[in-house]
Design brief:
Layout: E1 8-11, E2 14-16, E3 22-23, E4 32-35, H1 59-63, E5 78-79, H2 82-100, H3 107-132, H4 134-153, H5 156-160, H6 165-171, H7 176-187, H8 191-207, H9 214-221, H10 226-237, H11 241-247
Antiparallel strand pairs: 1-2, 1-4, 3-5
Helix pairs in contact: 2-3, 8-9, 8-10
């Protein structure tokens, strides 16, 4: 977390305007640096860095993958309010105090517990950010809907198969984890459920065409096998495609 603005952060090959009060999460093996554009600056901020062995065998190790923001892109960073920044600083201060304390049998437990507390606060703050940035999120939902419409109408499904969450995220220039979390917050459904609902809507429209066989419809929607289409349709609608055609 940086306390001042002192250049763009480089994350992979992508630059990001790294404002003060922005929190970035980096997984093991990821590389980043700061581009100050030739200006002499004195960075000011705090970083919490720990080896994976620190949390080995702890509750945090079991749940570390639940913190999906470690897989967000840098331009999906957490922008903290002043109150939130104070909370994060308080957590970091507690960890620092514990590190400075004489090592005893409680040290690891207390340090890891405070790291977990910090990450849980960050989960809360990300939930807040999804809400306060809802106008941006709504735009992504519209783009997602348009992307799916074009995918089926253009015949891409027949060529590439069923649209995946990773494909949609890539087309919208969002990391899969952030995309999945955003769609869940905005629609109440997972990104996969959203795609499957759209798929079923498309299927229902095609089933009304008496000139198309169920196998042809499955192929147009991107299914390799008709039985996979039939299984999903029945799971979502309650009847098979043929039964739905006869009912209507």
């Amino acid at each position: 977390m940086k306390y001042i603005k002192c250049g763009d952060i480089r994350y992979g090959c992508q630059p990001y305007d790294y404002e003060d009060g922005t929190l970035v999460f980096i997984s093991p093996g990821q590389v980043y640096g700061v581009d100050s554009t030739g200006q002499i600056v004195k960075p000011w901020g705090r970083a919490l860095v720990f080896h994976p062995d620190l949390i080995a065998g702890t509750n945090l190790e079991k749940h570390i993958k639940d913190y999906s923001f470690f897989s967000y892109e840098v331009n999906e960073a957490l922008h903290l309010s002043k109150k939130e920044r104070a909370t994060i600083n308080d957590c970091l201060q507690k960890i620092e105090t514990e590190i400075d304390h004489n090592i005893d049998k409680h040290s690891k437990t207390l340090i890891v517990s405070n790291i977990e507390l910090l990450l849980n606060y960050c989960m809360r703050f990300y939930d807040r950010q999804f809400i306060t940035r809802s106008h941006v999120n709504k735009d992504i939902l519209v783009r997602f809907e348009n992307l799916l419409n074009d995918y089926f109408k253009s015949g891409t499904a027949r060529t590439l198969g069923l649209p995946t969450v990773a494909y949609c995220a890539d087309q919208l220039h969002i990391s899969p984890n952030y995309f999945g979390d955003l769609i869940k917050k905005e629609s109440g459904s997972t990104a996969l459920d959203y795609i499957q609902s759209k798929l079923i809507d498309e299927a229902k429209g095609k089933i009304f065409d008496p000139d198309k066989t169920i196998n042809e419809i499955a192929d147009e929607l991107g299914f390799k096998y008709q039985q996979h289409f039939t299984r999903l349709f029945k799971q979502k609608v309650g009847v098979t495609p043929n039964e739905y055609r006869n009912l209507n």
